[in-house]
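Sequence, structure tokens reproduced for reference:
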Amino acid sequence: KAMGIMPDSPILWRISVALAEGVKTVLEEARKACPDDPEIWLASLVIRARDETDGGWMQAAAVKMADEKKYSPGTMVRAGDLFFRCGSTDAAQVIAKHVMAKNRGYLPGIVLGLRSSLAKKDVASSLTLAMTAADVAPDPALFYRIIADLKIKAKTPDGGMIAALEYLQKHSPKDSRTAQQLAQAYFQVGEMQRAFSVFIPLINENIGGVTYQSMLMAAESARQSGRLSEAVTILENTYVMYPESVNVVNNLVYTLAQSEATLERAKRLLPFLLKKGGTSAAVLDTAAIVSLKGGNLEEARVYMNQALKLLQGNDLFAEEVMVNAAE
């Protein structure tokens, strides 16, 4: 009866479409009666996506709706979300770019673009969109996490990555994963004092939850900050946890050799280290330092020559080995 009185009512046609539960004939009638109604239009996209599962039409539909400029940003994003969930990332991206161009700072449009870029593994675009989203979002934590994860995966620590991790740590101070990532980022950009200041509470509160890579970085940040005894303590604890790790033992012996007070322990551990990793340039470099500190220059020269023969030009520790060799 109501339809007879108000045949052009969008509200009544929306109800009819909902009650019809996907019957195409009802939807077609609704589209004829209310061709510009956004909810009915979205329903038509849902039915078409159900019936035409290959999704080949979605790209053209996205371009058309962007050109027509008929619907609100919210409606466009909902259509883009449908296309994205149906696997048409390109169509979703077309809509996202249109919405963002016409509605600067509109978070749902930015998020749709970000999801599309992440799905396409476009790191540069994903970073740009995540930073844009972080600037306008009431709670930017999710977007800072995306920024941090992308940069960690790409192994490109910089100020943006550190700022993201600092925000995350400030708002989730008990999150040991974020704290470790922040400390490692400080370490990688040469901020040893700051790295050490983040590592130490982690180690003191929950040493079992700290990776051995973080333990090694913590010790190195302590050593480079002039805290040699603290570096030794960290490495001794790490050695207890990972007694068979060549990296751990090598770092421990190298650090022990830096002080006369601990040089004898370095000498006692050296045979075990050489047995475990004597074909490594890093281990042979450590052996040379132990011999040098112990006053055996000839033995130090033999170990260092062996290390130099094994050294690859792009080794991370190449510069330090060359400095040790010069000494």
About this structure: The radius of gyration is 31 Å. DSSP finds 20 helices and no strands in the chain.
